[in-house]
Fold histidine kinase.
Amino acid sequence: MKLKKHSNIKTVLLIIAGILVLCFFIYYLFDRSFNGIFTDWFSRKFIWQTQDPNTGQLNSGLILTGFKYFIIKTVFFLALTVSLAIWLVSKFYARRKVQASIQLLSQQVEEYLSSDTASLELISKEFSSIRLPISQLRTKTLEQERLLEQENQQKNDLITYLAHDLKTPLASVIGYLCLLDEAPTLPEDLRKKYISITLEKSYRLEQLIQEFFEITRYNLHSIVVNPGRIHLETMLLQMADEFFPVLEPMKKSISVDVPSGLILYGDADKLARVFNNIFKNAAAYSYQDSDIAVCARSGQDGVTLTFTNQGDPIPEHQKETIFEKFYRLDSSRSTQTGGSGLGLAIAKEIVTAHHGTISVESNMDATTFTVFLPQTDYHTKS
C-alpha cells in the first residue's frame, strides 16, 4: 500500500516537473523566435525606471502590485493545468488498468470454466470477491450442458422409439392388406377376421401417433390448466366402469374408496388423463384375479390419491425412470402390455402443471402410485 502511494506521489511530481519544463521551453522558444518580445513586455509591465536629474544615473525596480497579481494568475493557471493533466493521466491509467483487469479476469474465467479440475486457485486473489459467483456460474453452465445433452439424447430416442413402436402395427396392417389383395377368394369368415385385425392395428397406430403428438406438444408448450370443481368420487367411479370391459376377461377389478363429498380443484380433462394412464399401467402389470384399489383423502394442504395393484415389484433403480418418456418395465418394448411408454410421462407433466407430485412405491406385496394435488393454487371463478 505504501509503495503504491509513493509511486503515485512520484508520478504527480514528474507531471508537475514536466509541465514546468514545458512552460520554460515554450517561453524560451517564443522569446527567441520573436526577438525578446516576452522580455520587452515583462519589462514594460512590471519594471519601473527613473533617471536621477543630478547624476543622470538610471534607477529601476519591480512593480510589486502588478507582479503579485501576475504571479497569482500564473500559479492559478499552472495549478489548473497541472490538475487537468493529472486528471487526464489518471483517467488514462485507470482505463488501462481496468482494461487489463477485465482482460486478465476474462482469461482466468475462460481457463477456469474449461478446466477439468475446477480449482478456484485459477482465479487471482485480486478477484477473490467474485470467486463464489464464478464457481456458481460454472456449475450452472455444466448443468445446462448436461441438460442440453440429455435433451438431444431424448430427441434421438424419440425418433428411435417412434420408428420401433410404429413398425410392428404398421407391418401387421400391410401384411393383412396384402393377404386380402392377393387372395380375393378367401372365405368370408377369414376375410372378416383379417379386416378386424387390420382395423385393430390401425386403431393402435392412431393411438400411438396421438400419444407421440401429445407428449411433444407438452414439451414444446407449457400446459394450460383450466381449473374447476371436480367431484372426485363420480369421476373415478365412471372411469372404473369404463375399464370393466378391459379388466373383466382377466378377472381384474377396480375398487374406489373416496369420500362422497370430496371436491378436487383442477383441470378435469387433464386429470382424467392422469388417472386413465395410471389405470392402464396398473391393468397391464397387475396379476390376474387381482384388485386395483383407488383411495383419495383430503388433507390440510391438498388431496392425496393412491392407486394400488398387486403385481411384480418395480426394481428400486427403476422407480424414477418409469416417469421418463418411452420407458417401459419390459425392456424389450413388446406390445403385449400395450402403451408406448409415454403414459406415465404425460401423467407427470400434467401433475407438475398442477404444482403437484407423483411418485411410486413398490415391494413384493403391491405397487402404489401416489398423486398429491395442492388445493391452494387454483380457484374457480364465481
Observations:
- The chain has eight helices and nine strands.
